[in-house]
Design brief:
single chain, mainly alpha, Penicillin binding protein transpeptidase fold, two-stranded parallel ribbon, about 50% helix, disordered C terminus
């Protein structure tokens, strides 16, 4: 027996009622999206509020870094004597050869990006997908500085997020030359060897201003793994990197000197700040018999500081 169709007004009412009741799956997705958005907002807000204020770096040199403190803790845990080999030098007293070599080795697009090199990230992702490995490399000089100053070597996603935010802050607050100056003075170049001056004197017995092209390329090549690649006993792979860097150095021009040279703050072998440095050779880091790895004194007179441009 055929049923008589419902009147059109009843059909319209039923359709509106069905539309007014969201599908359970849709409601579930909506709730999950809202919760995920709230969590993401909370994480970003927490990261932003807990980040360091980098503005002081424009007028003050850091006396220590997160990486230096990490190595100190490792030495203490292993029962080794606490030591730190570092001597801060102004940007104008670092070899142009070393500046070119480091840019070639670590961040060839240093002048072109604003802290994060999107193109290099794309290449790293593509390489990782092709090889089925994790994403490696693609960190700019500014990202490396952010990690060295404030963070750790871990691959934790939250740590990476903090690194990216600090990187942007550094690029906004500091000129490229200042970022590069700090980087060259705090980067790790061996077991408790920090910065260009300490590396130059330890490995080549010269000041950072007197590094040759070959020495600079060797130091720059070691940054990728400074605790394994020693310029004092360079393995074959490091020598190969040196040759690649030398071949590309002529196409790079480092950032111009800062308009104002900030007086550097030196630290002693225990990592404690000492007197502010001048253009005279450093005498606050004596080479004594009790020093496990002293910086050999520079026999040549200090170079004349270039006037600000």
């Amino acid at each position: 027996m055929l049923q008589r169709p419902e009147p059109r007004c009843v059909q319209s009412w039923r359709e509106q009622e069905m539309r007014s009741i969201p599908d359970p799956i849709f409601r579930s997705l909506l709730r999950k999206s809202a919760a995920a958005g709230a969590i993401a907002f909370g994480i970003v807000s927490y990261v932003y509020l807990m980040l360091p204020d980098v503005r002081s770096l424009a007028t003050r040199n850091p006396t220590t870094t997160a990486f230096m403190k990490l190595r100190d803790r490792e030495d203490a845990a292993a029962g080794r004597t606490k030591r730190r080999v570092q001597q801060w030098v102004p940007y104008t007293r670092i070899s142009q050869h070393l500046k070119r070599a480091v840019i070639v080795a670590e961040d060839s697009a240093f002048f072109e990006h604003e802290g994060i090199d999107i193109e290099e990230i794309k290449k790293s992702v593509q390489t990782a997908v092709e090889r089925g490995s994790s994403i490696r490399g693609a960190s700019t000089i500014t990202q490396q500085l952010a990690k060295n100053l404030y963070l750790s070597p871990s691959r934790d996603p939250l740590r990476k997020l903090r690194e990216l935010v600090i990187t942007r802050r550094l690029e906004v607050e500091l000129p490229k030359a200042r970022i590069f100056e700090i980087y060259l003075n705090v980067i790790e170049w061996g077991d408790q060897i920090w910065g260009a001056e300490a590396a130059a004197r330890t490995y080549f017995h010269v000041a950072a201003s007197g590094l040759s092209r070959e020495q600079s390329a060797l130091l720059a090549g070691a940054i990728i793994n400074p605790r394994t690649y020693s310029p004092a006993r360079p393995p074959r792979r490091l020598l190969g990197r040196q040759q690649l860097i030398l071949a590309r150095m002529g196409y790079v021009e480092p950032p111009a000197p800062l308009p104002v040279v900030i007086p550097p703050v030196l630290v002693d072998q225990s990592g404690n700040p000492t007197a502010t440095a001048t253009d005279e050779p450093d005498s606050s880091v004596p080479a004594g018999e009790d020093e496990p790895n002293p910086i050999p004194p520079d026999p040549s007179p200090p170079p004349t500081q270039e006037p600000p441009r």
